Fold this sequence. Notes:
This protein has 187 residues and is mainly alpha-helical. It has helices at 2-20, 56-74, 80-90, 94-104, 111-118, 126-153, 159-164, 166-174, and strands spanning 26-29, 37-40. It is rod-shaped and about 110 Å long.
Amino acid sequence: MPHLKKKIQLASSQRxxxxxxxxxxxxxxxxxxxxxxxxxxxxxxxxxxxxxxVDQTISKNIVKNYGKAMSxxxxxxxxxxxxxxxxxxxxxxxxxxxxFMATYKESTDSIDSLRHLLIxxxxxxxxxxxxxxxxxxxxxxxxxxxxxxxxxxxxxxxKMHHLKYRYKMLRRVRKPELFTYLTAKIK
Length: 187
């Protein structure tokens, strides 16, 4: 019995020490049912930051960057294995297509200029229509298989935005008639 009394006295002395010291980390609530109850102060939860809206200039640069990359790919040596098959299907000369791409390569800097190279109009000569169909197919190949490598090894700053918009660009290349914008207007 004396052993139990010592334990009770020790516990009550520790309780008094805790009550006397005002620690910022603990609140002491005295309960009649329990000897003492220590509860941690609730930590205030930080508010979640609002999602950042994509700046319009970023979306304009995405279209410009993709347009330049797709036209550079179509005029490069990487596209030659694909170009051989496509030129054979369309019955055109590869060198003439490369000359065509060399003239239009630097002008793809907006949605309108990219749409101009992708849409085959009824007024276009058969050779120009074939060039546009080949360019469209080469753009699809670039976006499907080579764009991730281009994004992560390129010098662009917004790599994740380019990666997110990759499939949007692919859908717009497949249906260029609907290619009027990349992102919705930001209010």
